[in-house]
Design brief:
The complex is a heterodimer of chains A (375) and B (255). Chain A is mainly alpha-helical and 375 residues long. Chain A is built from 14 helices and four strands. Chain A has a two-stranded antiparallel sheet with strand order 1-2. In chain A, strands 3-4 form a two-stranded antiparallel sheet. The longest helix of chain A has 28 residues. Chain A is globular. In chain B, 47% of the residues are buried. Chain B is of the alpha/beta class and 255 residues long. Classes of the chains: A mainly alpha (375), B alpha/beta (255). Chains A and B meet through helix 9 and helix 10 of A and helix 2, strand 8, helix 5 and helix 6 of B. The complex binds adenosine-5'-triphosphate (ATP) and magnesium ion (MG). Adenosine-5'-triphosphate binds next to strand 2 and helix 1 of chain B.
């Protein structure tokens, strides 16, 4: 290709100097710094009262850390965090999912009725929902039923959004209301209890021990182990596979994605289905942990999950964010909630603080947007 | 094989009551470079969107490479061999340069449906190559293109089109936001396409550029094609009088 030679050194850069060895710091670092800062603040607040946030100060209890608090925090983070992993993908896609908490509720009720044991202490299960045929099923049955519930909810969400062009806010709001209704209708509002031992083992067993062939043990913390595994899995999926590439592309410019030949509508359905499946995983772990399902399970989890994602740097306008960010965001969220408990803030205040966190995170997102628009 | 690569007959597009494109009869020969000019809102981009399958035409026929085509979407048009720089650029701002170059046609290490594994290294290498052959300079291809200047983003879109060019290239105002040197660069890319014998439709408001680069000039006015002139049989004043309606078309007197 001939033509006029153009000065290679400067053009396209306006003559600016550029040092390719210097890279911008990943935004996740800021979230990590915030996490550490907030933890330190609560530790200091506790020390002022002569207690500790994370550490064990009692002589009669062994261990360096306040194990009880850390366990509670981990459980909180893990269950809502798993939902947040799905919500993160939906938000990166440029959508929103308000239904995940209700999907957890409906899935919990349905799953539990396929996980029941026939005999409790020698008597027939007093909470039996379905007939004998659904009793003492192998553990794979409730898992399959649960995942199917989540996938179905996601399919309906995604299809409504992609093919009828309803705004995601409205479509998933409808699902939020309907799924909660389904949860109450399923057993006329009665709790479903007494799962099989193998089902109870899903959350209460020692998955880490199994996975590491007994090298490490972490009994009763399967939700945390599964959360970690899923976070790593989806971080890889979002960065390394075309699924992630398309999700980011659609969220960042849907028209461009369409013009580039991406099957945008089909991909949207898929992402909402993944989010539904993750809500179902959360429901399974939650019921397995609690050994019971109630129609009110998961209320407001969707907002917690959205807050975790936004705190972790996921932009509500789509296209930006990561799984690692959301994991850190989930930890910040949980530290703040536990932190307020640790300084004995009243439960009512906690609710209010939670609201402030959610709104604050969105304001933060808006600020980031504005900073970006200037560029 | 026919001598004509693209032909439209009676191509029309209405947006509700707006007749954005009416009865467009357009012919592009193999290897030919044609400019499409006209005022803002004359229907140039609308014409491009019909030919590239981004929108569905209201009436008329499109023939491409010897066959009548009805591209259901931009992917079909692209797979048929039409590469386009859209006026809106069609870039995903949060993705880096290689991801944008290969948007919708990623390279894989192995395929597994939606979870196919991306071959990021191959895409990056081919991107560097494409940027090199088009002499487009971009400081860090691994940054999201959101932070790049308007001209750099435009260069990404042009490099993408040039890299994948096969049967037909369409550029909708490719140099609109470019500086002097970058414009010269893009013009070189276009000359390169001419040398390779790849036919092209260039939409531009820059008549100097148009006379420099193309063989024939087609003038759009108010959704209609009002003139198709060989470069050597016309001049700038002539073209302007067609654009403004002084010459040609039934409304010439009215305007
Ligand atoms: N989706 C749409 N809905 C309604 N009207 C539209 C739509 N797209 C384009 N138009 C109208 O069609 C006409 C032609 O627009 P088009 O974009 O093709 O112009 P253009 O010749 O490319 O102009 P420019 O030089 O400014 O790019 C304009 O009047 C525009 O307002
Ligand atoms: Mg245009």
């Amino acid at each position: 290709m001939g033509g006029t030679p153009v000065s290679q050194a400067t053009h396209g850069l306006g003559g600016l100097k550029y040092d390719p060895t210097k890279k911008a710091r990943a935004p996740e670092w800021n979230v990590l710094v915030a996490l550490i800062a907030i933890t330190v603040i609560f530790e200091i607040l506790n020390r002022i009262n002569g207690t500790s946030f994370l550490f064990n100060l009692r002589d009669n209890v062994p261990g360096l850390f306040n194990q009880q608090r850390i366990d509670i925090m981990l459980l909180q983070v893990s269950i809502t965090g798993i939902i947040a992993l799905g919500v993160t993908q939906v938000i990166i896609l440029g959508g929103i999912d308000l239904s995940s908490g209700s999907v957890v509720g409906a899935t919990a009720m349905i799953v539990m009725s396929f996980a029941q044991t026939a005999m409790v202490n020698g008597n027939p299960n007093p909470k039996a929902v379905l007939g004998d045929w659904a009793m003492d099923l192998p553990v794979i049955a409730p898992i399959a039923v649960g995942l199917a519930c989540g996938l179905l909810a996601g399919l309906i969400n995604g299809a409504l959004i992609a093919y009828t062009k309803i705004p995601p806010f409205i479509a998933t709001l409808g699902m939020m209301v309907s799924a909660r209704g389904a949860a109450r209708w399923w057993s006329n509002g009665q709790p479903v209890s007494f799962p099989t031992e193998s089902y109870a083992g899903l959350a209460n067993g020692d998955l880490l021990g199994t996975l590491t062939f007994g090298l490490f043990h972490w009994p009763g913390q399967n939700p945390a182990v599964i959360f970690a595994l899923l976070a790593v899995l989806f971080q890889v999926v979002m960065i390394r596979t075309v699924y992630g590439k398309r999700t980011y592309a659609i969220g960042s410019n849907e028209a461009a994605a369409r013009m580039s030949g991406i099957a945008v509508d089909r991909h949207k359905v898929l992402v909402y289905m993944v989010a539904g499946a993750l809500a179902a995983v959360a429901a399974i772990l939650l019921t397995s942990k609690n050994l019971t399902a109630q129609a009110g399970m998961g209320v407001m989890y969707e907002l917690d999950a959205i807050a975790m994602a936004v705190i972790g740097g996921v932009s509500l306008s789509g296209g930006r964010g990561s799984m690692i960010g959301t994991v850190l965001g989930a930890m910040i969220f949980s530290v703040i909630i536990s932190g307020f408990t640790s300084i004995r803030l009243d439960a009512y205040y906690q609710e209010m603080v939670k609201g402030v966190i959610i709104v604050g995170a969105v304001i933060l997102d808006q600020w980031r947007q504005r900073g970006r628009a200037r560029g | 094989m026919s001598d004509i690569i693209l032909e439209t007959r009676g191509l029309s597009k209405r947006y509700g009551g707006v007749h954005a494109l009416e009865d467009a009869n357009f012919i592009l020969k193999q290897g030919e470079h044609v400019a499409v000019v006209g005022d803002n809102g004359a229907g140039k981009s609308t014409f491009v969107r019909q030919v590239t399958g981004v929108e569905q035409k209201s009436a008329g026929q499109i023939f491409f490479d010897g066959q009548e085509v009805n591209h259901a979407g931009p992917l079909e048009a692209r797979e048929a061999g039409i590469e386009t720089v859209f006026q809106t650029l069609a870039l995903a701002d949060d993705l880096d340069v290689p991801s944008n170059l290969f948007l919708g046609r990623e390279l894989y290490k192995f395929r597994f449906g939606p979870f196919s594994w991306l071959d990021r290294k191959a895409m990056r290498d081919r991107t560097m190559e494409a940027l090199k052959t088009t002499a487009v300079k971009i400081p860090n291809v691994d940054n999201p293109i959101r932070n790049m200047s308007g001209g750099q983003r435009q260069c990404v879109s042009i490099a993408r089109t040039a890299a994948f060019a096969s049967k037909l290239v369409i550029m909708d105002e490719p140099t609109a936001a470019l500086g002097v040197q970058e414009t010269a660069q893009v013009e070189n890319i276009i000359r390169g396409l001419k040398e390779r014998g790849i036919p092209m439709i260039l939409i531009s408001h820059n008549l100097r550029q148009v006379f420099d680069l193309v063989d024939r000039i087609v003038v759009f006015r108010r959704g209609r094609i009002v003139a198709s002139l060989n470069k050597h049989e016309t001049d700038g004043n002539d073209i302007v009088s067609y654009i403004t309606g002084v010459k040609g078309g039934s409304d010439a007197a009215v305007a």
